[in-house]
Every structure is written in C-alpha cells, then in structure tokens.
Give the backbone structure.
Amino acid sequence: MNKALSRVPLYTVLVLVALFALLPLYIMVITSFKPPAEASIARMWELPSSLSFSAWDRGFSILRPYLVNSFALAIPATLLSSLVGSINGYVFAMWRFKGSEIVFNALLLGMFIPYQIVLIPLVQTLNSIGLFNSIPGLILTHVIYGIPITTLIFRNFYARIPMEIIEASQIDGAGLLGTYRRVALPLSLPGFVVVGIWQFTQIWNEFLWAVTITSAGQRPVMVALQNISGSQIVEFDLQMAAALQAALPTLIIYVLLGRYFVRGLLAGAVKG
Amino acid sequence: MAQTTDVGVAAGDTDAAKDHRLPPRRQRSALARRLERYLPFLLLLPSIIAIGVFVYGFIAWTGWVSVSNWTTFVQDLSFSGFDAYSRLLDDFRFLSGLRNVIVFTILFVGVSVVIGLMLALLLDRDPWGAPIWRNLFLFPLAISFVVTGVVWQWLFNPRAGVNLILDRLGTETLPMWYVSTEIIPGWRWGQIDVAIPIALVAVVVAAVWQMSGFAMAIYLAGLQGISEDLREAARVDGASEPQIYRRVILPMLLPMTITIVIVLGHISLKTFDLIFVMTGPGTGYVTDVPAVYMYESTFRANQFARGAAISVVLLVLVVALMAPAVWARNRTEEAASE
C-alpha cells in the first residue's frame, strides 16, 4: 500500500506531461471533425455535437496537389539518399584507408552547418542547371545534404557486422563490390528501414529548402500549409484539418514503425 | 551508448558468406589490383565532391557574397569590404533577432534538458506502461515545425486557446503571449534591450513541446548504460537514494547532456520554420530571429550581401556553441575510457 501510494506523484507527472503532449493533437482532431457552425475559436475546446467531414473535404481539396508533390519528393529522395548512405557507410566501416577518418569527419561536419550559409549559392547553382523551382531540384538538395546523416547511421550499422564475415568473403575472392552485394547488402534491411524512415520524415517535414527553392505548383505540402495558415481569411477548422492531413503520413509511420524512428534519432545524435 | 544505436544485424544470415566459398581465388591483373586498392576512395568520391562543393565551396562563396556589393537584384560581386557587417552592428532588426535567438536558445535548451531528464528518471523507475508513456512523449518529434507552428499559433492566440481556460479559471489580466511587445527589463546595449521579450515564451513552449522528447530519449539511453550493480554498490556503501542520483547517476549522464546541448542548440540557433509560421518577426521584432531576417533580406529585398553576412554570423554562432561542447565531450569520453 505504502509503495503504491509513493508512486502517486510519479503518475501525476506522467499524466500531466501526456496531456501537454496530446493537447495540439486533441485540438486538431476535434476541430477538423466539427460542423462549420461550431468551429469558432471561442468554442475551441468543446467537442463537436455531430461528426462532420466538411473541414476534411475542404482541406484535402486544397492540399491534394501539394501532398502529391511531397510524395514525389520524399519517396525518390529517401531511396536515393539511403543508397548513397549505405555505400558510404559500408566503405567507412569496412574498407578504411589512410585518411578515411578525416574524410568521414569532414563529411559529418556538413550535418551541423546552419543551412542559411549555403542558401544563396544553392539557389544560383540550381538556377544555372535548370533545376530551380522543381521537385528534382529539391530531391538533389535533400540527397546531397542527407549524405552526412545517412553515412553516419549506415557506418554505425555496418560496424556491427562481424569483421570475420567480411574476411571470409575476401578469402573467397570477392572484392569490395562483391562483398557489398553478396554479404553486406543482404544484411542491410534493418539499416535501410532506420535510414529510410528517418530521411522520409525529415524530408516530408522540411520547410527551408522547400520555401526557398519552389514556388506555385511545385510546392511541397508544408509550404502549402504555411500559406493556408498565413492567410487571415482561411477558417480555423480548415487550418486544423489541413495541419492534420499534412502531419498524417509521418504520424502513421511513427505509430507503425516508431522504434525504428527512435533508433534513427539516437543514431543521428551520437557519433559512433 | 552502443546498445542503443544497435540497428540489429539479423542472426542466421551469417551463412551468406559460406555460400560463396566455392569459387576459387581468381587471379587479377596488376591494373585490376591497383584499381581495387583505390576503389574505396573512388566509391566515396561522388559524396566527397558533392559535400566539398555544396558545403565547403558554398560556405566560401557565401563568405565572398557577404563582402561584395551585391545589394540589388543584379548580381555584383565586386569587393566592398566589410560594409554589410558594419551595417549589421547598427541594425535594430538584426540586433533584436540576435538577442532573441540567444534568449530563445538558452530557454528552449534549458527547459528541454530539465523536462527530458525528469521524464527519463521517472520512466527509469519502471512505471506501468513505460513504453506507452515513452512513445507518447516522443511522437511530436515526427511532426513538422510547420504543423507545430500552425497549431500553437491558435493555442496561444490571445482570444483563444490557453486564454479561454485562463479566463474560465478567473484570471484577471490575460497574457498576450506572442503578440505581447513587453520586454522584461534588462540592460541597454546600444539600440536594444538585452532582456527577455515576453512574446518568446510562447515560442519556447511550442519548441519544447516538439523537442523535449529528444532529450528524454538520449537520457533514457544513457540510463540504460548505468548498471544496476553500480547503484547497488553505492547502496551497500551507505548512499541514500538522493545521494545515488546526485553522486552517481547525474555525473554519468553528463555526456548525454552535452550531446543534447549540441543537437538542440544548433537546431535552435538556426530556427526558421517555427518562427516563420507561428509569429513572424513580430511587432518591434520581438520574435524575429537572424534566420528569418536572412531569408527576407535575400529573397524578398534582394539584399544578398546582407543576407550572406547574417548567415556567416549564424555559422559563427553555431561554431561558438559546438566547439566547446565537442571539446568537452571528447574530454569526458577520454576520461571514461581511462
């Protein structure tokens, strides 16, 4: 009894923080399902009297082309940057050469720069190669600036494959590429899942590149959402429905594959 | 930290190596062997070139733009000296933004560390449903700052959200949140007050909502590395529970704290989307930050030299944060390995 009682403060704090964490989600969900007449900010906290899909419909009809853009951006960019990271990580983990640690650290530093410092040359470069204001331009940008994090996660991943397996493959006459294709790659699925989820989430949620590089019909969904929220005449319920729709893909991935997301989070934060 | 970054190599797949033991060792030509020797480097070459150009080359290029005469839509890369920088020193908006981002970073990182540590220590006591709580505290990390900004903008709208509840509770004067132009008095430095603008508090709450789970996750990973034996040994030595926390656990969490400060600190210094979406620069620039000013200078006002100069200052800020933190982390790692 005494022990149970001593745990009351523990659960009190957990419940309070959980309420804080769920607060924005609660407002987004209940508002987006309210009949338009009830969607005033004065009655923000009240549950809807009946279920209405009006805000979902209106939000989706505005966001749909931008959601398509975001998928057309995030899926290829995620696949490409995972592949690049896998090859780099494999080399750094298993085929170290003189100076490879220096090269690795020099690549890694690219992760920590404030991206404002490359924004002007990036816009000029994309302009000169005809990729400004295009999804392919954004894909290229995400793949290049994703190199440090994907390389880091994959290097740490491959560092856990026992060196003996690689050596056995070498003794059998397989070279670097053969060993990658026949030994490393088949073992890489968990690594690809972690990196893929991480990159998809980051690319889907990203805003600075998107708002700088694209305009009008090329915009990803986060820029479209910002435009909706920045407009004074857009109704509150529509804004909440649009915000929820824009957040849904990464939220669904988190619910289904959360533990891989957390691994990416920890792997990205800790230099191996 | 090793066990937490484990992305798991599937057991049983080790047979893959054996399957390929059959073909005999091939004889390779001298050229092929030489190529093989440089192959690791060649495979990395595209990435090295890409980062070399898009990170290091572009930083140098931005540095040059910042000392150029490029202040209109037409590119002018002639050398102007440090005009753009000296104008920034006299620029009310820039100085306000600089103050804001430093205040914001201290508050945001500080509160996130405290909340993250508290949650990690609570979950470490193994409450019922620990994984559920953990997932609940981590899910905001999967959400975009844009979404966060849109929702919290409404929650801190002075006529809505939190204030409706405060009003119901009978609060006399409702806070203005991010619309407030009040600045907690500090001291004057040139044109600006070195102090805390009230409006930043609302942005800090939103940022903490989004990112404090990160601090929790890092601390939890650190706590898993502290063995029960160690705590037991301290207990046997007669240490009380609070003493164990203060003398054993907290010091061992120092490397995690440094990691959190590095990651959250650099995210905070370059804050752009949250401010851009939630508040904008604000009346009297009470919520402006250098990243927003950089964007508007460059892409709205065509003041490329000024935009470049602001981004150079941002880079310097990040380096100033990270250099001592990385140094401290290397030191604690060395101490741990000795």
